[in-house]
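Quick one: structure tokens for this chain, please?
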Amino acid sequence: ADVQMDGTVAPSTAAEVISPHPPQIQPSASSFYMETQVDAWCGMHALNNLLGGPYVTMDACERAARQVVRRLSEPGIGDVEDLSEHLSPGTGFLSIDVINALGSSVLGIHVEGEAISWRQLQDHGPGAVAFANWNNQHWTVLHKDVNSGGWVHINSILGHEVRHGRKTCDAEFQVRTILEETQQAYGNVTLHRVTTVDIHAG
């Protein structure tokens, strides 16, 4: 089957991290929430699209980025960090450090810094989830639907290319097509596995 656009699009809204309980990764494509691109805040949109709601705001991203810069700039840790390395003023691109500052504190997720291959991601079986880093310019979500067994790619940028919007892929080659098209357009694509963590563990 061809890669199909499915579902509806939710407006990109946002409040603070709004749930008193950590949200859950949404592994099913049968019902979903989706934010579309606003002011290039792709990291925020990727987190919210993965978790199925407006859990993270621009303000939360900015505060997390400043927190990361303060932590990494502490005496004895290393050189003074540049905020733009963790929150791009031009694109809103978030570093993995910032995503994990949000994820580990309130969202209950962790994004691995080391990239894995598409084949390695498939080996993680049902419920496998990764963020795709488009050459440090954009984040999207790739996850396996536990109901259908297919893969779902969620991109907050809408358009006419196969990499745009939300696509359900019934076959592996369809995912490869998305990744290859993205690599041709952006120069590099890396996959970073997303795991769940216990935010109450410390």
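Residues 58-72 form the longest helix (15 residues).
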